[in-house]
From TrEMBL, chains A, B:
PANTHER family: HTH-TYPE TRANSCRIPTIONAL REPRESSOR YETL, TRANSCRIPTIONAL REGULATOR, MARR FAMILY
Signal peptide positions (record): none
Domain HTH marR-type positions: 19-151
Pfam families in the record: MarR_2
Taxonomy of the source species: Bacteria, Pseudomonadati, Pseudomonadota, Alphaproteobacteria, Rhodobacterales
InterPro entries: HTH_MarR-typ, MarR/SlyA-like, WH-like_DNA-bd_sf, WH_DNA-bd_sf
A GO biological process held by the record: response to stress
Gene Ontology terms for molecular function: DNA-binding transcription factor activity
Protein name: Transcriptional regulator SlyA
Length: 161, 161
DNA sequence: TGCCCATTGTCAGAACTCTGATATTAATGT
DNA sequence: ACATTAATATCAGAGTTCTGACAATGGGCA
């Protein structure tokens, strides 16, 4: 039996690499980047979605869970899950909204603010890696493509006239 | 009518849209595209990862679960989960490999082949949408960026010298 | 006033993805 | 021959994401 040395198809053979399907490359890119982010965030214990939620909450403290879901293009259930985990970790706090009966006000705790400061440094370093090797114009092309590819997916839209 | 109200911050205000962080845009793009793919695949009952796994198995019928995980840049556990669901749905079959004791040979069932034919038509239509509005050169830029962003994430690599 | 409906939030269940741990088998080294 | 290492596959548990279903609140309209 020879040692067929790692001839996995795909190095230049098939749909991998720069010749692959865009959808396939998109999924792998997102998986790979998330993996790198969470490895880097390991010491903070945050996941990529948790980091994104904390960042949004810090920027827009008035927003409800439903608001955040709309901003992030996620379903209310998904955002609810992420916030529940942040609350269990004592990084956010929720208390009943005075005027609006069902709404709840969300706040970062001190621990939440502290961990967010550390996490931002780690993630922004990776963010600059993401642009490395691409000109300003190329980056604009990439951004434009990403926005088009996402395509405001869950836009319940139509609002039925 | 209009109902242009939707004043959530982020239309042109902040980190959303084409000015947002690349990592953030990447996650949203992948989420949105996956959502569109699975909506389109609804009638087949397949998910995007299941579709990818079936496609790979059809192209490389000799490969084991571990091989597929390497090709797709996923962990063996993840690929194992996907294959288990495909097996429960009777779209693939696994029987013990003759020569190699622990390896298992994976095969598409007739149902698996049939569903894959239908799914390919649905997904490839979306794939062309993904390139619409971008020149050949711009598409090359996007592909190159996606490959760099993914960065062969889990490459256990180094193999400890 | 009282009913309809949109908004907000949650529970349940499924699939994907990771880390960590474990068992089994093959290949290798002394 | 025996021990070590590598590869394959799986179990367990956590977090993210969806669909589907439901309760509670608030506003609008007959």
């Amino acid at each position: 039996m020879g040692k067929t040395t790692r001839l996995l198809p795909g190095e230049g053979t098939d749909k991998r690499g720069p010749d692959g399907y865009l959808g396939y490359l998109l999924r792998q890119a997102a998986n790979g980047y998330r993996h790198r982010v969470e490895t880097s965030l390991r010491e903070t214990g945050l996941t990529q979605p948790q980091f994104a939620a904390l960042t949004m909450l810090d920027a827009y403290p008035e927003h409800s869970s439903a608001d955040l879901a709309r901003i992030a293009l996620l379903t209310p259930q998904t955002m609810s899950t992420i916030l529940r985990n942040l609350e269990n970790a004592a990084l956010i706090r929720r208390h009943p909204h005075q005027e609006h009966g069902r709404k709840r006000r969300i706040e970062l705790t001190d621990a939440g603010r502290q961990v967010l400061v550390r996490a931002k440094r780690l993630v922004y370093a990776l963010e600059t890696d993401l642009a490395e090797g691409f000109s300003e114009e190329e980056q604009r092309t990439v951004r434009r493509w990403l926005v088009a590819a996402g395509g405001r997916s869950l836009e319940g839209g139509a609002t039925k006239p």
